[in-house]
Structure prediction request, 302 residues.
Amino acid sequence: MDSSFAFKLSILITLVISVLLITINLYAVEIKQGWILFTNGPDINSIINYPAKIVVIDYSADGTDKKAFSSAEINLLKSTGKKVFSYINFAIAEDWRFYWNKLPKSIILGNLEGWTGEYYVKYWYAEWYSIIKEYMTKISNANFDGVVLDWINVYTHENLQKLSGKTQENLKLAIVENIRKIVSEFPKMEYVLINGEDILIEFPDLKKSIKYVLVESLFFTNTKLKLSTKYYTERLSKLLKLRNDGVEILSVEYIDNGNPLDKTNSERIKTYVELATKYGFIYYVARTDMKLNILNIPRVIN
Prediction:
């Protein structure tokens, strides 16, 4: 390629980018997130000054014990007025975690469909609960305010029911038993249940210790509104009941394609913020790829 042509091309690209940035600044505005959900490779420096009071991250910068956050790092986040929660997979094993090599293979049931490196386990076994206790101790020692428990609704999976030979009811009771035990053994921690509204409705005594539900994809499915569905109306009713009982609802929707000049994307984000605000839910607008590997700052057409 001729050097003069390459130079002219680079100048043109720079101009196009500059014009695009000016256009974005003129016509797009930032939507302030209500809370932060950054669990895949969380970067404390990128979130420390963001004005959100609730932060959910992993206990580690890359998911491994080697890069686990120190209490000094978590205290630095908390010093800005943030309440900091650590994510923990409560009923599914992950093959990159500190416990994988010592996890008895006899309690692994099979692959969790759609999630590479994640496995159904016999979470009702003492061996798994002992792993969870060790996990919780690490999180507690790092001075997190609390934990976010994921896959507590795995008991609804037909594949798990087949692999384990257990009924949905028995699997649910086993999850609830583990929740009760962990809350009892770590009473100073705060607890968030991911998609855990059904458990809190059925076992209302848990609300004494569990003050948050993190709800995914309530309003949208694959970026499409689903307000007319029976599933939505029934789920919303449960969440509003919990909200009235003093349980905070942390909502996340995976709806932002990252293009601030996309009118459809902008309207989708605005609709979500309006709905979440209407019902008193704290919102987080996440990217459509569901990777949760950045602090997403949504921008919409003004």
